Amino acid sequence: MPRPKNAPSKVAIGNNPERSRTHNRRVVLDAVRLHGPLGRTAIARLAHLSSQAVSNIVGELLEEGLLLECGRLRAGRGLPPVQVMVNPDGGMTVGVEIAADHLVTVLVDLLGQVRAHHTIPLGDTAPRHIKQRLKAEIDKACEKVPGASERLLGVGVVMPGPFEIEGMSSVGPTTLPGWSGLDASAVLSETTGKTTLVENDATAAAVGERLHGVARNLKNFCLLYFGVGLGLGIVTEGRPLRGAFGNAGEIGHIIVAPGGKPCPCGNRGCLERYASPHALKERLSAGGIACDDPLELEALHRQAHPIVREWIAEAAFYLSPVVGMLENLFDPESIVFGGGLPDALLDDLIAALDPLPRSIASRHQRSVPRVMRGATGQLTAALGAAALPLLETVTPRLDTATEPASEEKL
Question: Distance between CA atoms of 269 and 255, rounded to whole angstroms?
Fold first, then answer.
């Protein structure tokens, strides 16, 4: 995946106490993932860990198959150091997007490469039906790569929020009926036979961009996610911000036009009613155009269809001040636009935001743009889901202490 220009790769600092061994393993894996192939001395320098600590951790990771030796680097005199890299086949994760009308399954390796993916239509999103389809789709994906089932680190599932909200109608285009009151993670873990992490789609998409997309070198960013509705994923210090009940970033339901269009949530004038893919499809439907396939929307945009152009202008009108608001609230390095809209349409939407309002992000010296398009495309949500168990394996928890001690007790 492309990296933002002029953006240095950032590696978390390891901890030397024994109690931080799991953190240190993540630091080492993250360093190799971002900069590999690397020798042990280079890893120690990047991670601020002792050479002995790194040697021990690398030995463990090689034995577990998470790292591979890949030759020696010729540099200067003496015996060249042995280089290590992340082993793509060392582990697999499955990501599942459960949307209102379809289910996407992806099998992803440790480098974020999609090894298998499949999309099926959904007419029924009730738990009973989803459980039946989910296990079959995961098995089908794992069959594409020999041994994938045995190396499966976990399953991530994303579904649209908001979750368990009183006073807001759960009836609408972005929510799934029948899941209220259920522990979705427990239900789906029992179904898959693997630890299954459940997240809202926008937060998972941000995790995907953090691990595999344009935000891989950013610790603090927001991702505006264009699913059926509109969501926001927030990453602070490299970790997703979830909120008390997993609903942080429910930006589609902030009111931008008081007294405006009625929203299924019970309010009027919500951002989602103007700047979401569902709002665009409503406009097209009112104009006599049924557009249920992303390729059809891509063709309409390529033809500069007037309804698509009008929606871009209206969406940008409401989103431009929202970008400034997010910058002032979270001080992100950048705001990423991603999700189910065609890349070219997202590019035009970002261009239409200009002039962006002044905010704390209005600086001449920037390594990345204030707003940029994500790199994970229309599989963003499913890739984000697959990244959830990977996040627990290879990404350091940056809320642990970051000052190295003098000696590691290993």
Answer: 5
Closest Cα to residue 138, out of 106, 164, 109?
Answer: 106
| Count of domains observed in the chain | 3
Q: What tens digit of pLDDT does each residue of 287-300 get? A: 999 887 788 999 99
Could you list the residue range(s) of the whole structural domain that residue 152 is in? 91-204+386-392
CA 312, 314, 315, 320 torsion: positive or negative?
Answer: positive
Q: What residue type is 332 in one-letter code?
A: P
* pTM as predicted: 0.76
Cα torsion at 203, 208, 214, 220 (round to 10°)? 40
Same-domain status, 288 and 367: yes
Task: Determine the Cα–Cα distance for residues 341 and 312; give it in Å rounded to an integer.
Answer: 12
80 vs 61: CA distance, rounded Å: 21
**Co-location of 220 and 186 in the same domain:** no
Convert the pLDDT of each residue in 53-85 to its tens digit: 999 999 999 998 999 998 776 655 656 788 999
Burial 107-145 (b: 16+ CB within 10 A, else e): bbbbbbebbbbebeebeebebeebeebbeebbeebbeee
Beta bridge partners of 255: 270
